[in-house]
Amino acid sequence: MGIVAGRLKELHHRPTFVFAPGGDGLLRGSGRSIPGFHLRDALDLMSKREPGLLLRFGGHAAASGCSIAADGFERFAAAFEAVAAQWLSPELLARQLEVDGELEAEWFDVEVASLLQEQVWGQGFAPPVFASDIEVVQQSQFGNGHLRARVRTPGQRGSALRELVAWNRSEFLPERSRVAWRLEANTWQGRSSARMVLEALEQA
């Protein structure tokens, strides 16, 4: 549920809760939020406005969970939307992505990627996101609606081909574009390499 909530949150840039039936006859929910909307505080306010709605809840600003009665979904949705309408401004609902600029070619390697992945990132302490102009040399779809490409970053000295993956994207990339991306270490058949993971695309 948390994975689905996270993907919906990324797709729509809205605080999201996903529910599924629990073994005890209750509905169990998992939520993910956007910057500026404290999910656990929202649940706390809902519990005060709607006594008895939340049987259990907990979490933090970016991710929370709760349990409600099997017939409580509509009541939860209305209470959640009421808090969202009160707290969310047009500025918060506008998707914004802060980037850390270019990553020099010398730092594009498995060691740096692994070091970044070992850190604990969260709301208010986001993982670094880099920006680059790219030229697509080859691209193809794989899995269930994902994209893999071989790209060149012309602005970098000694620019070699890099692998770029775009999760949940089936549309091909333009031949030239500016992208925001994360550095990731990928291991396949015992071999590790660094790759770019697409965060956002701005067509050139």
Quick description:
This protein is α+β, with helices and mostly antiparallel strands. Helix content is 25%, strand content 37%. A hairpin with a 2-residue loop joins strand 8 (176-188) and strand 9.
Overall description:
This protein has 204 residues and is an alpha+beta fold. The protein has two domains: 2-93, Roll (Diaminopimelate Epimerase, Chain A, domain 1); 105-203, OB fold (Dihydrolipoamide Acetyltransferase, E2P), CATH 2.40.50. It is 25% helix and 37% strand. It has five helices and nine strands. A hairpin with a 5-residue loop joins strand 1 (16-21) and strand 2. The model has no long low-confidence stretch (mean pLDDT 89).
Short descriptors:
single chain, 204 residues, alpha+beta, Diaminopimelate Epimerase, Chain A, domain 1, OB fold (Dihydrolipoamide Acetyltransferase, E2P), 2 domains, 5-stranded mixed β-barrel, 4-stranded antiparallel beta sheet, 5 helices, 9 strands, 25% helix
Give the topology, please:
Blueprint lengths: L1 H11 L3 E6 L5 E6 L6 H11 L4 E6 L3 E6 L4 H15 L2 H4 L16 H9 L11 E13 L3 E7 L9 E5 L9 E13 L2 E13 L1
Parallel strand pairs: 7-9
Antiparallel strand pairs: 1-2, 2-4, 3-4, 5-6, 5-8, 6-7, 8-9
Helix pairs in contact: 2-3
